Amino acid sequence: MRHIRFGAAATAALLALSLAACGDDNDGGSGSGGSAEDSFDIAFIPGVANDAYYGSVACGIQAVAAKSGSTVDVQAPKSFSPTDQIPILQAVIAKKPDVIIIAPTDSKALYAPLRQATSQGIKVVLVDTTLEDPSLAEAQVSSDNIEAGKVAAAKLVELLGGKSGSVLTVNLSAGVTTTDDREKGFAEGIKAASGLKYLGQQFSNNSVQTAASIVSATLAANADLTGIFSTAAFNTEGAVAALKSANAASKVTIVGFNANPPGVQQIEDGTVAAQVVLKPYDEGIAAAEQAVNALTGKPVTKEISTGAVVATKDNLQSPEVRKYLYSFDCPKA
């Protein structure tokens, strides 16, 4: 039998129910198809609790674990920060799982505790985010965030339709590899567009209120602000609130990076013109597959990159977009 245990908050409990249901569908009530010697204790530490993106990653991990009857124990920090994530990681290490699949919340701060894990013989696989020095990991699985940032820039330029003006990026915090790369790709793409002035990035430090303040101040200082790129859900929420407060929503186009239910709602109600959608379920599958390969002595692919699509009101109901919208409900086998 598979046992799925979740730390942090009520939504994580809902995810546990979803994963348990998926497990029942996968094995049809007769156990997994794997052998006992291929059954492992897998710990998954996402970047933050209550985020459907990581719910989709967890579903992918469970889909692979179900094939061998492996356990999946998810422990999520309450905020996307090393301060909250490191104590959880240390508690997980003390349980001595066979492998830890983790989305590091800081490219430097998580290195030492993860080195502690590998020194005790625990395998490590990085998913979504990575480390400045990822050599300790068996594999790293992530989206191509630089390319996704370029896709966001191209979409914003298309949506602006030749309008001139200033463009701002609201980012999370420095040192998060995924969002750093998104801004890097976006900056490259937007600087190549004619008629647009790139104001660079400002950091919200994971705060909706700070993101709103950044956008409000930028509006006050730049009357020609015409576009905002948000690298994550916190920033988008703050940007939407600031534009609404300033009665500027019709003048400034937002391209975000969030296919969680609130992000989908932002597309539907028109407060966000487009959302870049990654493929977290595919990430979870790839991470778990490489973890099992490492544990069973099979060849491991050290780096795996997954793609992205762009969701707008026009294509939101299309199958190729809907299948990648983030959710705690695992796809049925």
Automatic annotation (TrEMBL):
<feature type="domain" description="Periplasmic binding protein">
    <location>
        <begin position="42"/>
        <end position="298"/>
    </location>
</feature>
<protein>
    <submittedName>
        <fullName>ABC transporter substrate-binding protein</fullName>
    </submittedName>
</protein>
<comment type="similarity">
    <text>Belongs to the bacterial solute-binding protein 2 family.</text>
</comment>
<dbReference type="InterPro" id="IPR028082">
    <property type="entry name" value="Peripla_BP_I"/>
</dbReference>
<dbReference type="Pfam" id="PF13407">
    <property type="entry name" value="Peripla_BP_4"/>
</dbReference>
<feature type="signal peptide">
    <location>
        <begin position="1"/>
        <end position="23"/>
    </location>
</feature>
<keyword id="KW-0732">Signal</keyword>
<dbReference type="InterPro" id="IPR025997">
    <property type="entry name" value="SBP_2_dom"/>
</dbReference>
